[in-house]
Write a structure and sequence with these properties.
Helices cover 30% and strands 23% of the residues. With 193 residues, the protein is of the alpha/beta class. The chain has a 7-stranded mixed sheet with strand order 5-2-1-6-7-11-10, with helices on both faces. It has a two-stranded antiparallel sheet with strand order 3-4. It has a two-stranded parallel sheet with strand order 8-9. Helix 1 runs parallel beside helix 5.
Length: 193
């Protein structure tokens, strides 16, 4: 069986725990590639050191089936002039992925990268945002106070909804095929009988 390609975007202090369940559910059907602003080690929020094996610039959108962005503080990178070229490269890749109908999934603060790229404009979405002006990124989208929102090929979720994010992404990717499988998997991940 040929596996599809999942790309996980890493950036300093990304919330690793928000995507672990999703990666677990995709592991048998997707090869995982880690990507960052630069190659090398990236420290997560939990002090887990993960290696980005390629840079944003190295991504060929044609090779991506699903692109996952964990939570963190995207605004700190978007507003930092040091990252302006890297953010533009990320925006360009996200736009190319969205235009080609690739699955894009972002959780917690991660959707801010999507909003900054303009791919949430006119779409429904959700995210975990604070009161430090982050809501301005979402002015052109329809922000929903929901645990997760699926709008076409884009899945967004609040940080506390990482289990729903995982099972909805697995369903979107064809790993879970029925609502019953979604519910059983959700219960398994939550250790509920």
């Amino acid at each position: 069986m040929n596996k599809k390609s999942a790309y996980l975007f890493l950036y300093d202090q990304f919330a690793d725990f928000e995507v672990i369940q999703a990666l677990l559910l995709l592991r048998d059907n997707y090869n995982l590639t880690t990507v960052g602003f630069q190659k090398g080690l990236v420290d997560s929020f939990s002090n887990l050191r993960v290696e980005a094996s390629m840079t944003i610039e190295d991504i060929d959108a044609a090779n991506v089936d699903v692109f996952i962005i964990p939570g963190g503080e995207p605004k700190d990178f978007i507003r930092n002039d040091k990252y302006s070229k890297k953010i533009q490269s990320l925006n360009d890749k996200l736009i190319a992925l969205a235009k080609s109908g690739k699955i894009i999934a972002a959780i917690c603060g991660g959707p801010t990268f999507l909003a900054n790229a303009g791919i949430l404009d006119g779409n429904n979405c959700t995210a975990s945002i604070d009161n430090e002006g982050e809501e301005k990124f979402y002015e052109k989208s329809t922000f929903k106070d929901s645990d997760y929102v699926l709008d076409k090929n884009i899945l967004t979720a609040k940080g506390h909804a990482f289990t729903d994010f995982a099972v909805q992404l697995a369903k979107l990717c064809g790993v879970l095929k029925t609502d019953e499988e979604v519910e059983q998997t959700r219960n398994w991940l939550r250790n509920v009988e």
